[in-house]
Design a protein that fits this description.
This protein is α+β, with helices and mostly antiparallel strands. The chain has helices at about 10-15, 70-75, 80-85, 90, 95-110, 125-130, and strands at about 1-5, 20-25, 35-40, 50-65, 115-125.
Amino acid sequence: MSRLMSVSLTEDAVRDRRKTVTRRLGWMFLEPGDRLTLCRKVMGRMGEPLVRLAEVEVVSVRRVPLDPMPEVDIDLEGVDVSAWAMNDHEARCRACRPIAWADWFARTMGVSIAAQVTRIEWRYLDTAEEKTP
């Protein structure tokens, strides 16, 4: 059974298979090996069709602090830099990027930058694997 997960803020990165990590406020029930169907939008569709973007398998789930954010995870998250960087300096500065990203996430989700979040990493399934029960 595959669970549905919305990736509305990172749809292009999912389509391009650049996004392999996400941070969520919940989702602590996931385990490695679980399958997810990544969708444009899951809740609040009000009659809109469910748009499935990709099938993935969870490879890692763990609770982590939002800050400090490992710099390597920023690209793996797939959020467009224009969404979280306030200026060119934040977008380019290796020391600034993790703080700017974590601050953007905290504001967007309405939590403290000191919040604990669930870091979920996945791998994309190819067509043959998607058809295997």
